[in-house]
Specification:
Elements: H1 3-15, H2 18-25, H3 29-43, E1 48-51, E2 54-57, H4 59-88, E3 91-95, H5 103-114, E4 120-124, H6 127-135, E5 141-146, E6 154-166, E7 177-182, H7 187-197, E8 203-209, H8 212-220, E9 225-229, E10 237-240, E11 249-258, H9 268-281
Helix pairs in contact: 1-2, 1-3, 1-4, 2-3, 5-9
């Protein structure tokens, strides 16, 4: 039986008036009357009787209101238990590998500041896959890369692209220049190829990878020069700039996107809290390595 009908019926029992009950539940008196007529048809009993201008419960109505209260109590208890279980499950958050080291911890702290009991399941994948996982309901929210002037999600910061090399191996001096780049669907791949295609310096595409960690392993071992987000790079690498013959790379936008049907704790208010927390705790220079 429709719980809305039962709640309206109990509202009448508590108010003693169609008009007051209708006002309590936010319906017009005529809509409330239609609800009560529908309820009488469902239970196949007369629940109301008129005494002059007043409407009262019949004997059957008095009997039924006790059952209605018990049904609603059980319904509310069940829904409360389900909501409690849903809220206690981990929040599924996605993050590109580029941002897992420095940006992801800040975002997790932001959520924990609002919901101290929150637990997390983290999925590290490229943005193109994370978007798909959001659409398919496999994630509740995700950190993503977007174009510098993009509008998707809730903006967190701009992240510079940088060229990196091993300070030990100095592969940036090799001719032709070996490049270690993200996969072709990453903006840094196209930007890096375009930059050197327009120059007179010969280069080879030594390797591509969807994982920033894998790229950095190859760069660390002297196998190529990488092009990736500054947030991925630690102090052990040398950052290359125009003085080394490397043109500047554009920045990407970093944002948080929410799933259409997300965890009960994940909503616009939480996204706004993440934005505010990141603004306060992730200074523009915090994840930007200094050129050596």
């Amino acid at each position: 039986m429709d719980s809305d009908l039962l709640r309206s019926f109990v509202a009448f029992a508590e108010c003693g008036s169609f008009n007051r009950a209708a006002d309590r539940i936010g319906r017009t008196p005529s809509a409330f009357s239609m609800q009560m007529k529908r309820l009488e048809e469902l239970v196949d009993n007369k629940l109301f009787e008129r005494d002059g201008r007043n409407v009262q419960l019949t004997h059957e109505g008095i009997t039924f209101v006790g059952y209605a209260r018990r049904i609603l109590s059980l319904t509310d208890e069940a829904m409360g238990q389900l909501r409690s279980q849903e809220e206690s499950r981990p929040i599924r958050i996605g993050c590109p590998d580029d941002y897992a080291q420095k940006i992801l911890p800040i975002v997790l702290r932001a959520i924990s500041a609002v919901h101290p009991q929150a637990r997390f399941f983290v999925s590290v994948n490229p943005t193109i896959l994370l978007r798909r996982m959001l659409d398919q309901g496999e994630l509740d929210l995700s950190i993503i890369s977007r174009s510098e002037k993009g509008e998707e999600g809730y903006f967190l910061r701009h992240e510079l692209g940088v060229w990196v090399t091993s300070a030990v191996h100095k592969q940036h001096l090799l001719d032709p220049l070996p490049l270690v780049l993200p996969a072709e669907d990453c903006k840094f791949h196209a930007w890096a190829i375009d930059a050197f295609s327009k120059s007179n310096r010969p280069f080879t595409l030594y390797a591509t990878s969807r994982q920033a960690a894998s790229m950095l392993h190859l760069v660390r071992d002297g196998l190529g020069v990488g092009a990736l987000a500054a947030a991925s790079v630690t102090d052990e690498f040398k950052i290359l700039d125009a003085r080394d013959g490397f043109p500047p790379l554009p920045a990407v936008g970093v944002a948080v996107m929410l799933a259409e049907e997300a965890h009960p704790l994940v909503n616009r208010q939480l996204a706004g809290a993440i934005q505010e927390y990141v603004t306060r705790h992730l200074d523009d220079d915090l994840t930007r390595p200094v050129a050596s």
